[in-house]
TrEMBL record, chain A:
<keyword id="KW-0067">ATP-binding</keyword>
<protein>
    <submittedName>
        <fullName>Ribose transport system ATP-binding protein/rhamnose transport system ATP-binding protein</fullName>
    </submittedName>
</protein>
<dbReference type="InterPro" id="IPR017871">
    <property type="entry name" value="ABC_transporter-like_CS"/>
</dbReference>
<dbReference type="InterPro" id="IPR003439">
    <property type="entry name" value="ABC_transporter-like_ATP-bd"/>
</dbReference>
<keyword id="KW-0762">Sugar transport</keyword>
<keyword id="KW-1003">Cell membrane</keyword>
<dbReference type="GO" id="GO:0005524">
    <property type="term" value="F:ATP binding"/>
</dbReference>
<dbReference type="Pfam" id="PF00005">
    <property type="entry name" value="ABC_tran"/>
</dbReference>
<dbReference type="InterPro" id="IPR003593">
    <property type="entry name" value="AAA+_ATPase"/>
</dbReference>
TrEMBL record, chain B:
<feature type="transmembrane region" description="Helical">
    <location>
        <begin position="89"/>
        <end position="110"/>
    </location>
</feature>
<feature type="transmembrane region" description="Helical">
    <location>
        <begin position="116"/>
        <end position="133"/>
    </location>
</feature>
<keyword id="KW-0472">Membrane</keyword>
<keyword id="KW-1133">Transmembrane helix</keyword>
<dbReference type="Pfam" id="PF02653">
    <property type="entry name" value="BPD_transp_2"/>
</dbReference>
<feature type="transmembrane region" description="Helical">
    <location>
        <begin position="164"/>
        <end position="183"/>
    </location>
</feature>
<keyword id="KW-0997">Cell inner membrane</keyword>
<feature type="transmembrane region" description="Helical">
    <location>
        <begin position="209"/>
        <end position="227"/>
    </location>
</feature>
<feature type="transmembrane region" description="Helical">
    <location>
        <begin position="289"/>
        <end position="308"/>
    </location>
</feature>
Length: 504, 315
């Protein structure tokens, strides 16, 4: 299936890890000057495919043709040599070095004397950034001082410095705020104009329809379809990805809202939690919207005892409590599913069973001994109840897909029988199918009387799931909007609202 | 996958131990005798006790370099409390062990309260405790302990050296703790991902504090056994013993980055080192040759287990 117009074409790519076939004879190609979207649920094989294209993995079978000639990549250097560059999801820059140093790292232009020509490095970096319309970025700034979006542009500049003909972008918008997403999309379009072929991996349908020329869907390691974007609609793509159709994305369940369970009054911690007051009732989903850095996560961490409040009052069921540690929070019935699943949510190398029991290990013990039978039973129940897809409960959590990992974190906290469940970006990096499942789980929980605080960067999710929306900006509540009145405009306006009164 | 690779490492190591024992018994007919083997067991008890506690410490991703100095300090205090202060010997030994345990507790406080990395904290107390030991001893050694005291270090119970019983008992208890208790679970969780452990409401700090205290206790008990074995007390006792213990632990498959390790592995690693040391010296190999060989074995064992682990896990 090698396409004469394609610059890179992969045929019959297969790859196994430890006996598990993660990619089965997949064909894929990229033409110059097109955006080719790569879609699939987590675990569908997208990462494996792009890692083979960029020389990180060697395929077990299949051929890679570049410019009509067959090539074999034994390292990323080989792929870079033929013009294939990758911007990974976790950006691989050196935080202590400057922008210019990062862009030309390993590739520095030299003077006649063989010394690095710093003036040239800085000039060319400036050029590259200007080409990306990034006039505001200082080439001497240390990378650690940059935002995620800026770092991403540095990565793209780095790829361009090597004259990339194909640019692979792995979920480039996963951790960007809306305005940065727009800017990135502009850059992608510009690169396309210049004849760069772009492989665009993303979960977000809106971006795919706005950008892509063609789209390829993978499912369970196999190639499902490659289509021109004009031939498909969103529903078709989703059902190709999950192999079934999904009724609705935000199945808001109607639960009876009961009495107040949590009351927060004038809560403060540092610069990011300022004078926060709100009530939360049983069976309610309280959405928290706000830009990254607005203090949403800090508020959650303060409620969870990670960064205890410096002043203000928290009352559970009408009783004033002090929460000084996650342990105390847990004992009071507050659970927190953190934003950073890999670092904060899970011990990836440990089995599902051990992760599920982690927050309740004392309760699962008699004396100092863990009741292994009961622990296993509870894990089995959790796997069943939340339909966590795994080989068995002894499987390390790190081997699961993003959505299933998230379900394990949720399972861990449901074991504590929380009254208040705080979910921080519960569906980030989770595929469409698992996302709907997580939303369904939330619906069931509120029916049982659990109160949920949901923090999300995704406005449709906040609007679709919440009974009430709190908007936070600069550490303060800048809006409290009931479900009926919550529109993207109103919430968006509150998100960027300038605080009245004192300055930051 | 994880459990499998662990078993693999230990099986590999056990096989290696068997091979080494066979080869060494051909090298010298004095090696593979009951007397010699039991005597070797006697010699490895002190390192063994320390290595068992060190397994826990390293499994959390920490390290304790001060154990040798704690051993020296406890040994000196035993002598001083008994001879200079005039306490009855059992009381003196108990008090000295308490002091050694406290030294470990201080390590724990420095590490958990003041957030000093374990390597730095215990490197500092390595110097501190050794200096203290030397200051207290004033370069004098204590001798002439009563005869009954040597039961611990020089005599047998049921035909087996007394201290080997202690080591055996400690190993069994430690294995059970590490494998079946909430505490052991916490050790592995902290070693694998400290942040997630904290976010799960595990008592990370308390566990670490307890571990470094236990490490001090193990070194202190080893000190009393040491004194009883060699019938004398000197302030330089236990110098460098931390490296022997760490070698045994790492050879036994405990990951220096934490999250992985077993007591069985540590004990096999310990036996392997002791067998090499003794067997080679009986076969006429000089001391420096033995050390080089132990270094080589350590590297090979780690390489082999890394190889096993890499096949079949994805990044």
């Amino acid at each position: 299936m090698s396409n004469p117009t394609a610059y890179v074409s992969l045929t019959g790519m297969s790859k196994s890890f430890g006996g598990v076939k993660v990619l089965k004879e997949v064909d894929f190609d990229v033409r110059p000057g097109e955006v080719h979207a790569l879609l699939g649920e987590n675990g569908a094989g997208k990462s494996t495919l792009i890692k083979m294209m960029s020389g990180l993995y060697t395929p077990d079978a299949g051929t890679i043709m570049v410019g009509g000639k067959e090539v074999k990549f034994s390292s990323t250097r080989d792929a870079a040599a033929v013009g294939i560059a990758t911007v990974y999801q976790e950006l691989l820059l050196f935080p202590e070095l400057s922008v210019a140093e990062n862009v030309f790292l390993g590739n520095y232009p030299r003077t006649a004397l063989g010394i690095i020509d710093w003036a040239e490095v800085r000039r060319r970096t400036r050029d590259l950034l200007d080409q990306l319309d990034t006039y505001d970025l200082d080439v001497d700034a240390k990378v650690l001082s940059l935002s995620v979006a800026q770092r991403q542009r540095v990565e793209i500049a780095k790829a361009l410095s090597k004259n990339a003909r194909i640019l692979i972008m792995d979920e480039p918008t996963a951790s960007l705020v809306e305005s940065d997403v727009q800017r990135l999309m502009m850059i992608v379009r510009q690169l396309r104009e210049r004849g760069v072929g772009i492989v665009y991996v993303s979960h977000r349908m809106s971006e795919i329809f706005a950008l892509a020329d063609r789209v390829t869907v993978l499912r369970d390691g196999a190639h499902v379809a490659t289509r021109d974007i004009g031939e498909v609609d969103e529903n078709q793509l989703v059902s190709m990805m999950v192999g079934r159709s999904i009724e609705s994305l935000f199945p808001k369940a109607d639960a009876t809202i009961g009495e107040t369970v949590l009351r927060v009054t004038n809560l403060n911690h540092g610069r990011h939690v300022r004078d926060i007051s709100f009530d939360l009732r049983r069976g309610e989903i309280l959405g928290i919207a706000g830009l990254v850095g607005s203090g949403r996560t800090e508020l959650a961490l303060t409620l969870f005892g990670m960064t205890p409040a410096t002043s203000g009052e928290i009352a559970m069921d009408g009783k004033v409590v002090r929460i000084g540690s996650p342990r105390q929070a847990r004992d009071l019935g507050i659970a927190y599913v953190p934003e950073d699943r890999g670092q904060q949510g899970l011990v990836k190398s440990m089995a599902i069973r051990k992760n599920v029991s982690m927050a309740t290990i004392e309760r699962l013990s008699s004396g100092i001994f863990i009741k292994a039978g009961e622990e296993a039973q509870r894990a089995l129940d959790a796997v069943k109840r939340l339909s966590i897809r795994c080989r068995n409960i002894g499987q390390p959590v790190g081997e699961l897909s993003g959505g299933n990992q998230q379900k394990v974190v949720i399972a861990k906290w449901l074991e504590t029988m929380p009254k208040v469940l705080i979910l921080d970006e519960p569906t980030r990096g989770v595929d469409v199918g698992a996302k709907a499942e997580i939303h369904t789980i939330m619906g069931e929980l509120v029916k049982q009387g659990v109160a949920i605080i949901m923090i999300s960067s995704e406005l449709p999710e906040v609007l679709g799931m919440s009974d009430r929306v709190l908007v936070i900006s600069g550490g303060r509540i800048t809006g409290e909007i009931a479900r009926a009145e919550a529109t993207p405009e109103r919430v968006g306006a509150a998100m960027t609202a300038h605080r009245t009164g004192e300055a930051a | 996958m994880n459990v499998k690779s662990l078993i693999r490492h230990e099986t590999l190591l056990a096989l290696l131990l068997v091979v080494v024992l066979i080869v060494l018994s051909f090298q010298s007919d004095r090696f593979f005798t009951v007397d010699n083997l039991l005597n070797q067991g006697r010699l490895m008890t002190e390192i063994g006790l320390i290595a068992i506690a060190m397994t826990f410490v390293i499994a959390t991703g920490g390290i304790d370099l001060s154990v040798g100095s704690i051993l020296g300090l406890t040994a000196i205090l035993t002598g001083v409390f008994w001879q200079n202060v005039g306490l009855p010997l059992p009381v003196a030994a108990t008090a000295a062990i308490a002091a050694g345990t406290f030294a470990g507790f201080v390590n724990g406080v420095i590490i958990t309260r003041f957030r000093v990395p374990p390597l730095i904290a215990t490197l500092a107390t390595l110097a501190l405790y050794r200096g203290l030991a030397e200051g207290i001893s004033q370069a004098r050694s204590v001798r002439g302990y009563p005869e009954w005291f040597y039961v611990l270090g020089q005599q047998d119970v049921l035909g087996v050296p007394t201290q080997l019983w202690i080591l055996f008992f400690a190993a069994v208890v430690a294995s059970i703790i590490l494998a079946y208790t909430t505490w052991g679970r916490t050790v592995y969780a902290v070693g694998s991902n400290e942040v997630a452990s904290r976010f799960s409401g595990l008592s990370v700090e308390k566990t670490k504090l307890a571990l470094y205290t236990a490490s001090g206790f193990a070194a202190a008990v080893a000190a009393v056994i040491f004194v009883s074995r060699v019938s004398t007390t000197r302030s330089d006792m236990g110098t460098g013993i931390e490296l022997d213990a760490i070698t045994a632990v790492v050879l036994g498959g405990t990951s220096i980055f934490g999250g992985r390790g077993t007591i069985v592995g540590t004990i096999i690693g310990l036996c392997l080192i002791q067998a090499l040391k003794n067997g080679l010296s009986l076969a006429g190999v000089k001391g420096d040759g033995t050390i080089m060989l132990i270094g080589a074995v350590l590297i090979l064992a780690i390489l082999a287990s890394n190889l096993f682990e890499r096949s079949g896990t994805r990044t």
